[in-house]
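The instructor's notes for this session suggest beginning with a concrete chain rather than abstract definitions. Hand out the sequence below and ask the class to guess, before any prediction is shown, which regions might be ordered.
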Amino acid sequence: MREKVVFFDVLRCVAAVAVVVIHVLGPYRELFGDISSSSWITATTFNSFSRWAVPIFIMITGALMLTDKRPFELKYYIQRRLGKVLLPFIVWSIFYAVLSGLLPTGYSMDVAWETLKALPVHETYYHLGFFYYFIPLYFVIPFFRYFVQRYDRTAVIALTSVWLVMTTLFLFHIDGPWSYEFILYSGYLVFGYSLYQLKWPTLKWLLPLGAIGLLLTDYMVISQTFAFDEYTVGRWMSYKTLNTALIAAMIFSLGRYVADKINEKWLERLAFMSRYSLGIYLLHPIFLWPVRAFDWYFFHPIIMIPFWTVVITGLALGASWLLAKNPKTAWLVP
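After discussion, reveal the predicted structure:
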């Protein structure tokens, strides 16, 4: 049990920070040709090296929920599992729809209203897109849980392998029924279970494969952008491709390896931050808004990206902690 708690605390913390990195560097992505090549390449490398963050959250969910041995109760599942995420998502979506009307030049009610009307089919703020493919996964989790509990290791590895093939096909634009977003994101649930419960693939294989994935992702995006003289990513930055899956698996396994080597004082700090990792995810754009709106990127990205990541993460963590202290608002940062 101790390994499980420490393991996921470490992963939640590093994934939350990586998400903030992705959003801090956001404005740089489309500035190819407008800023120095050094600045753009630095920001793009930060981006390439952070794409594993979102898959990690899904893999943790799969590892936890598919290993749950308790009898499945539909009412409990809907109220305590799905409801715990769904209700805060709706409330924060409304909040961010209102925030979307806040522009550097003033407030636009029209922008806010149009954003709010699109809520059923489109995120009201950039970071909330995650929930549109994460929440539907709750409907497939019971079926995956049934599968892993009734079939052996070989069957689970076979299913995971088939999914990895699908991510490979998708990466190289070979599309078919496997290209549906729901299918590709669902696979991360079983992949997380395979890594956690079956320890497959092993870290010995994932280290070189993940490292190659990191370097290849960065190289392909940078080289293609310079070749076409415009920002070009293909599917290399997608969360649903083989390169990202292997990188995420490497980070997942490294987190497991490192967890037992961290001293108790740092484990306590990580546990605290882990408790509010979803809050950090939900709240950090509030504090990032003025940075992006007023272009507070004063120095080279190698300085500004880490600087604002630390500041924004700290502010979001503090705000999450304050909300969680009050029983009336604690449910907003589950």
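Then share the key points. Strands lie at 102-103, 106-107. The longest strand covers residues 102-103.
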